[in-house]
Amino acid sequence: MQDFVNWFRSWVNSGCLLVFAANCEVRYSGRAESYLPKGDRLVMIKPDNSVHVHQPSGNMPVNHMREGAQQVIEEVDGCWVVRSSHAVNKEELLIQLHKVYFFQEQLLDDGKKVVVAGTEADMAEMIYDHPEIIEAGFTPLSREEHTKYGFIDVFGFDGDNNLVVIECKRQTADLHAVTQLRRYVEKIKQSKGLDKVRGIIASPEISANAKKMLEDWGFGWRRIKPPKFLEKYDKSQQRLDYY
Amino acid sequence: MQDFVNWFRSWVNSGCLLVFAANCEVRYSGRAESYLPKGDRLVMIKPDNSVHVHQPSGNMPVNHMREGAQQVIEEVDGCWVVRSSHAVNKEELLIQLHKVYFFQEQLLDDGKKVVVAGTEADMAEMIYDHPEIIEAGFTPLSREEHTKYGFIDVFGFDGDNNLVVIECKRQTADLHAVTQLRRYVEKIKQSKGLDKVRGIIASPEISANAKKMLEDWGFGWRRIKPPKFLEKYDKSQQRLDYY
DNA sequence: GGGGAGAGATGCCGC
DNA sequence: GCGGCATTTCTCCCC
To answer: Which CATH number fits domain B120-233: 2.40.160.50, 3.40.1350.10, 1.10.287.1700, 3.30.1330.60?
Structure first.
């Protein structure tokens, strides 16, 4: 343990990523309060001073501090504690150490950003490029006009010159999506002083309840799948190739 | 590298957590498509076979596979690749390794769950225990009856025997909270054939727009702060104490 | 630069 | 397995 304490103190602010496994208790106070009883966890502290406590299962860290925290190790009542605090966010994380299994540090050089396709914005883009997938005669507004309406995904006119608001969802549209669309339609009606504004949800799927509420409100739905520009699926090999 | 490959193969399905740092490229295909160019990252694979790729900064993993994936290491075009695939979810993650800096495995024993205070459920609990914080004469329904109505936070009668639906929000209530409350009230009105059902939002704050919409719909608001049982803030010391 | 408000994404829980 | 909701969120826009 003393090895770990000395090493921890020389590591602080070294710019290295730190990772260690330990038997510990964890306490958090900030936006919520939590306590995690004694058990084995993996702790990672990044060069940006974010802290991540992981249990052996589960997708999310059981506790974490965001970047900009300050870390110290100190003895409290005969027990070593890693104290991570974030004055601005009024948050504090305490990791009470009972046994440290291993520890390791590493300098990581990485400035690259991930490139993603298949988002909601890609769906809107696709509808702009191929408005006929909504319906014959549908004409989106120019992108310049569109930006004035901010949060609406796609905005245009149908063949009868009715305004149409389209809300895109990457996956199954739910009740929330319908109430959202309804708010937008009512907002546009009001600001334009219009009587009729159509609302359409574009998504690969829609839940039964959402479909019902949509129809109750006189809105429509189009089955549209988000584009996956990077994907090249080779069925014969049952694997994925890129570029 | 060959050490790592051999070690990786003996580690697979050992029940240990695995962590390594490497210079790598990462490709993902599944719910979306992504590509991350060459750089240094930390990779963690848990005993539940979830995979987490972390860059040296950022709160979230840049890529991850959820529990139940299958991991193999294989040589592709002269380069070693960790392939993680999830047949059910039709997801695949490829980590192309250029250099491995360190690797470590550890058996972690942990069955404990985190205890959180200050959630929406805690607020509902508090209202059950102290119904007078809503208003004099308010009587919540028993928890058993309450479960019949599903996801409504608190449900009861006021002094005039009107039904009251209460929606709790941990922080500032927004437009979404109001539309949610409205859905619940309308649902109850319909299923009970009632003319008058009151709706109340309980939250520490409420946005101006939400307040307005709330009043337009004849609903009410009570300023209620989520309980933080674990917190004891010692102002004189400007630090936190627990228990 | 800090705070507020709205929208988005993802995990989790219950049916 | 799916639907619905919560969240230790994120981001942008405003001041």
So the answer is: 3.40.1350.10
A216 touches chain B (CB under 8 A): no
Q: What single-letter DSSP state applies at residue A142?
A: P
Q: State the DSSP code for A31.
A: S
Q: What is the pLDDT of residue B18?
A: 97
B34 with A117: Cβ contact below 8 A: yes
DSSP letter (8 states) at residue A103:
E
C2 C1' closest Cα residue: A88
Chain A nearest CA to B129, separation (Å): 20
The amino acid present at A17, given as its one-letter code, is L
Tallying the residues shown for chain A, one arrives at 243
- Chain region(s) in chain B for CATH 3.40.1350.10: 120-233
CA distance A66 to A93: 11
Q: What is the DSSP letter of A133?
A: G
The structure tokens listed for A227 are 């584009």
Residues of chain B with pLDDT under 70: 229-243
What is the token pair recorded at B223? 């300023």
3-class SS of residue B6: helix
- The residue ranges of chain A whose pLDDT is under 70 are 229-243
Cross-chain residue pair B67–A57, CB shorter than 8 Å: yes
Interface of A with B in 74-133 (CB under 8 A): 85, 92, 94, 101-102, 104, 106-119
pLDDT at residue number A143 = 74
Of A107, A119, A117, A110, the residue nearest B37 (C-alpha): A110
Determine the pLDDT at residue A235.
Answer: 34
Q: In sequence order, what E strands does chain B have?
A: 17-29, 33-45, 51-54, 63-65, 70-76, 79-86, 91-106, 115-117, 139-140, 154-157, 163-168, 197-203, 220-223, 232-234, 239-241
Which chain C positions have some atom within 7 A of a protein CB? 4-12, 14-15
- Pair of tokens at residue B171: 């922080």
Q: Is A56 on the interface with B (CB under 8 A)?
A: yes
Q: Helical H runs in B75-168?
A: 120-129, 143-147
Chain B interface test: which of A29, A98, A181 (most B C-beta within 10 Å)? A29
Phi, psi of B210 (to 5 degrees): -65, -40
Q: Could you name the CATH architecture of B2-106?
A: Distorted Sandwich (2.70)
At position B147, the amino acid (one-letter code) is T
